[in-house]
Specification:
By secondary structure, the chain is an alpha+beta fold. The chain has helices spanning about 1-15, 30-40, 100-105, 115-130, 140-150, 165-175; strands at about 50-55, 60-70, 80-90, 90-95, 110, 130-140, 155-160. The strands form 2 sheets. A 5-stranded mixed sheet has the order 5-2-3-6-7. A two-stranded antiparallel sheet has the order 1-4. Bound molecules: zinc ion (ZN).
Length: about 180
């Protein structure tokens, strides 16, 4: 499999006027192949279950600034940023450590920012069915930056249950600070 990948990268590069025998680039197909094998590590993997525990507490829980890196499915270059999650438990709370594993899973494949945000919402809903769930993903999109030089931050939000309410969402955004 890796041989086939390396050959395809060589074929691709050979369509440009690049000296593929130079010492700089000789091992590039192997490096790129290994890199993308890591970046696409969650393809074919089972959806991880978010660990949870019983809780009678239904105060809002906020987890801020979980970093992620993913790969744009349209251009195969990175988009990356941070994710904020707020939820109100419904008899079940999530272990804090589990979120990174779930984010890793939804990031390590060719992806769209909107879909990543929604897939994360689905996994959390499935695990703890909170009364309200709100996820904001903020990212820089290198496919835009590399071509246009713009450095905008793009936000995608999914809101579920009682957090679909517009005034609740406005309060959450205020709570999350101005970073
Ligand atoms: Zn793109």
């Amino acid at each position: 499999m890796s041989e086939k990948r390396e050959q395809s990268i060589t074929d691709f590069l050979s369509t440009f006027d690049i000296d593929l025998e130079s010492s700089d680039i000789k091992r590039t197909p192997e490096r790129v192949s290994n890199l993308y094998a890591d970046l696409f590590a969650s393809i074919g993997e089972p959806v991880p279950k978010l660990s949870s525990f019983d809780s009678e507490d239904d105060d809002i829980v906020i987890i801020e600034d979980l970093k992620f890196h993913s790969i744009c499915v349209h251009h195969l270059v990175p988009f990356f940023g941070s994710i904020d999650i707020a939820y109100r438990p419904n008899k079940k709370a999530a272990g804090f450590g589990g979120f990174n594993r779930v984010i890793h899973f939804v990031s390590k494949k060719p992806q769209l920012q909107e879909r990543l945000t929604n897939e994360l919402g689905d996994i959390i809903e499935e695990a703890i069915a909170p009364k309200g769930l709100w996820i904001r993903c903020r990212a820089r999109q290198l496919c835009v930056e590399l071509r246009q030089g713009s450095d905008a931050t793009y936000s995608t939000i999914t809101a579920r249950g009682e957090f679909t309410d517009a005034s609740v969402q406005a309060d959450l955004i205020k709570l999350l600070g101005k970073k």
